[in-house]
TrEMBL record:
Residue spans crossing the bilayer: 7-27, 79-99, 119-141, 161-184
Residues annotated as signal peptide: none
Name of the protein in its database record: Claudin
GO cellular component annotations of the record: bicellular tight junction; plasma membrane
Keyword set, alphabetical order: Cell junction, Cell membrane, Membrane, Tight junction, Transmembrane, Transmembrane helix
Species of provenance: Rhynochetos jubatus
Keyword Transferase: no
Alphabetized PANTHER family for the sequence: CLAUDIN
One Pfam assignment: PMP22_Claudin
Example GO molecular function: structural molecule activity
Amino acid sequence: MASGGLQLLGFVLAFLGWIGIIISTAMPQWKMASYAGDNIVTAQALYEGLWMSCAMQSTGQIQCKVYDSLLKLEGNLQATRALMVAAILLGLVGVFVAVTGMKCMKCMEDDQVKKMRMAVFGGVIFIISGLAALVATSWYGNRVARAFYDPFTPVNTRFEFGSALFIGWAAASLAMLGGAFLCCSCPRRETSYPPTRGYPKNAPSTGKDYV
């Protein structure tokens, strides 16, 4: 029962992390314009994501523009896109594999060993998915921080971390934690010992001695 609860907890955490990775990938707030220092505060907020750039007016109206050409994008942005998409696809595979190995499912009930291996394999896939998302978000955040502290970067073009980065970091951590729980949910094999042989009981004495 304990391993089943740990397995269910791991799947829920990994699934929530996978959903968070999808949300982070789709959000345009990967970096936002900084108004720190001597920057002039304007009446709009600028955001940039993996797929589009947006401007939010003070009235609350948001205008977004999808990037026109894939080939004109920076190589770092293309690599970040690829890692996030790979994390989503791996998470999708991990969902199907882990569900097959869940104890509460009736799939593969006749072979419990393979069923447990499927759950562990699903956990490994979730860990790889979380690592891909973690690398992508950390790499993107590192580039934002380096550009922010670069003295040659114009003040009016500096950006800070957007909310999508924080969601991506949290989602990647959940995916890896849930995958680790799935990998640890497999119960250890108990060492089986041969049954102890009983010694024959002595026949009760009849009180008669034979010569």
